[in-house]
Amino acid sequence: MGNDLFCTFFLTLDMILYDRFVLDNGLRVLVHEDPSTPMAVLNIMYDVGARDENPEKTGFAHLFEHLMFGGSVHIPDYDEPLQRAGGENNAYTTNDITNYYCQLPAENIETAFWLESDRMLGLAFSEKSLTVQKKVVIEEFKEHYINKPYGDVWHKMRELAYTRHPYRWMTIGKELSHVENAHIDDVKHFFFKHYRPLNAILVVAGNVKLENIKRLADKWFGNIPMGDKYERNLPKEPQQTAARQSEVYANVPLDAFIKTWHMGARLDKGYYVMDLATEILGGGGSSRLYQSLVKEKQLFSGIDCHHFGSTDNGLVAIEGKLVKGVSLETAAKAVEEEIEKIQASLVTETELQKVKNKTESIIAFEDMGVMSRANSLAMYELLGDAQLMNTELQRYQAITAEDLQQTCKEVFRSENSNTLLYHSK
Amino acid sequence: MINRKSAPEIIDAVNMKLQLKPYDHFILDNGVPVYSIDAGAQDVLLIEWVFYAGNWYEDKNIVAATTNFLLKNGTQKRKAFAINEHFEFYGAYLNRSCYNETATITLHCLNKHLPQLLPVVAELINECIFPEEELAIYKQNQKQRLEVNLKKCDFIANRLIDEYVYGFHHPYGRYTSTLDYEQLNRQELVEFYKRFYTEGKCLIFVAGKPPADLAQQLNHSFGQLSINSHTLPEIQFNCEPAETKKYNIINDADGVQGAIRMARPFFNRHHPDFQKAQVLNNIFGGFFGSRLMSNIREDKGYTYGIHSYLQNHIHNSAWMISTEAGRDVCGATIEEVYKEMAILCNEPVDDDELDLVRNYMVGSLLGDLDGPFQIIARWKNYILNGLTDAYFYDSIQTVQSITAEELQALAKKYLNPEEFYELVVV
User: Fold this and answer.
1) Are B262 and B337 in contact (CB under 8 A)?
2) Is B418 in CB contact (< 8 Å) with chain A?
3) Which of A305, B165, B187, B313 has a Cα-to-Cα distance from B198 of 20 to 30 A?
4) Domain annotation covers residue B51
5) Is the domain of B255 the same as that of B390?
6) Is this complex's ipTM strictly greater than 0.90?
């Protein structure tokens, strides 16, 4: 077996321990042993998301995720044998990645290897599955983005904020017709381009033993052809030089205000700083925007500040619904005043400590579940190094009030902003 | 070469030995019972204060939910902002939720901050003042939120189907209008709070890695409060199910999907058929491999998802089918649901499918018991429903031993189309 790159990490107590090895075909495998659970998790992350789609065929990465359940070369039905082994599974697609995970009693972990390796080997490419899953995805599209008040906000905002980078469409797709027009040849092409061992990361976690997982990984995944490395070459979003604004009139009961700014990529220092800034501005009942604009000035009935956790340069957003009778101009101005405040003076030590404490809690709670640990390990490995999972908190703790001020000055510039005024018709 | 066509050997989950970890139990000086699960690896803690303060006990619509919501909005010592800032500063999450019989305060925190947090939770139970301006903001924002929700077909459908099954006067069937918010007044909240929180009946659930002095810490902050000073009022409600069974409602003329709900009244967990019905429900629409999912999503593509379930209520329940389907296939979806009911009534489930469902149910139960928060959630459900761990072992026994004949008899008894309410909201 090809474990020449095998290495072991010895870490301190609070860290997530894992072993890592690489098969001859390039499949990276991480094993995280946790004997306290009776379960095992098998997680496969593929290095493909909606950003890798053809602009004329959007929504495909997500549609494809559905097709992964439509049978593989040797196994007509993925779900049934897994359920028979006492397991459950799901998957999700983002703009950056596609992730598949299943959990089952640890004794039956080989069933998961059998199922996952067969669909990496090849799909059944059934026309029937494609026809049905196109319909299912169209209903999903309607349920979440059409048949809901404000459901199209992020479609519109992405198109406003991005001119070239493929983040300008949502994972569900730009329009229904792209999903409707998907063809079986597109499915085959996509599969062999992206779903190869070289472009995947396998994480096995739970009540498992490293030696056994090495044996199983080699047995089931070892002879899958490695495929070509997918070289990502996405158009870069040019630096925005002037503020953009768009207005929408829709059949909704309340006006809504949505504004975004371009921010740092996932591993930039600015990303971590902005993550804390969103907490100071919009995280919880003691955040600045909530206290000032919902409670004191009563301009918004609710307000959020968040970012998307994107791998490439992403967006930070402030969005809220207005109290009836308040104009969008007044609301925009009040948001601007809060932005100016955070740029003009340093955040207080209490505020900074608060958001660092919150971050510590979030990480502790996230790490409780073995499924969540497996998913994080895969994500960090994909970002370049699974070990990042154990150094995240330090990166947050190193941030100073001056860092926050500087990043807020850089990001929250008018010429870097995109505003969507969503009017109630 | 490995044989990829045949599945690896498995151990049938159904034969695995499942244990429900017992709780530690102690009683505070004022009689408040504490149930605690110590099963954590991380130094984190979940504490939940459960009060019998749900809408079962309110005299006027939405008083219980409003009281619960405003627990964080001002005490004699602290304004809303200061309360939020205190919990957030320690990286803690303090949530509150109102249900039918009960209403809760939930704290998630790191163990090391517990001494700073518990006294302030006690303050919320003992010293809330419900400021007028906080109530006014709440009313305004809740009315607006309601207005947005009323545009959603699934929101409307969820309200109406409960009203049909239980009647609007029953706490399970009641819902809120703009007028209800307008008619709220502060005095009602103050009285409800005193009766059902400050002097109300309370249980405490703890899970994670509790510190050694947990009992002392809880007793210090809560053991001297006046909670548990009254017995609960005995209140009974009769269900008043609607006469008409079928409803079609147009909420949005341009809607592209319909929210479908089908439901029949059912019993609570103490009924001898309840656990068996859970198995039948799984086959019918309870998981991804169920008949409804296989047919209506995976074969026909009418919907992104369709589910059936028994509602988790204490007094009585309903057997519910729920989906959002394309507007032009709502009729066809309902027809397929009835077809699946008929098949369950007319044909015994074959061994293969029944084995699969048994393994799936036990396997997912095993997964559900993974972690202290999950274990305490199950215990809480049992305790609030007046059940013991015998219920847990009985339900596994039922999954292991129920026969195809019993399931068919059960289907004939309960899956009768004429007993189901049927609602489509576009």
Assistant:
1) yes
2) no
3) B313
4) yes
5) yes
6) yes
